[in-house]
Amino acid sequence: MADTAKRARRKTPVDRAALTRLRLEKGWTISELSRQSDVTASHISAVEQGADIRITTLAKLADALGVSLPAVLLPQNGDSE
């Protein structure tokens, strides 16, 4: 049953380029974003390099960066309605 749950979980469509760009625009290192968001630096680094992230954790990063969650999500098909 755990395998089914893992397969059913969709990856969060993170706009990694936007996340990195927003961090750099603030002049922040990964360590500073970690302090501001209460997300570990190693996790932020992994996400910027392509690792998956929970939507709740991504929301913490967006909040620390002063943007809304959609600003760090990739647009999905059909979202332009």
Structure description:
It is a single chain. The protein is mainly α and 81 residues long. It has a domain at 11-65: 434 Repressor (Amino-terminal Domain) (Orthogonal Bundle), CATH 1.10.260.40. 54% of the residues lie in helices and 0% in strands. The chain is globular. The model has no long low-confidence stretch (mean pLDDT 89).
Helices and strands in order:
Blueprint: H1 2-8, H2 16-25, H3 30-37, H4 41-48, H5 55-65
Which features characterize this protein?
globular; 54% helix; single chain; 434 Repressor (Amino-terminal Domain); 81 residues; mainly alpha
Total beta-strand segments: 0
Q: What profile does the largest beta sheet have? A: none
State the order of secondary-structure elements, H for helix, E for strand: HHHHH
Distance between the termini: 36 Å
Percent helix range = 40-55%
Q: What is the rounded Rg? A: 13 Å
Any idea of the CATH class of the domain at 11-65? Mainly Alpha
Q: Could you say which structural class the secondary elements and strand pairing correspond to?
A: mainly alpha
For this structure, the CATH topology of the domain at 11-65 is 434 Repressor (Amino-terminal Domain)
Residue fraction in strands? under 5%
Mean pLDDT: 89
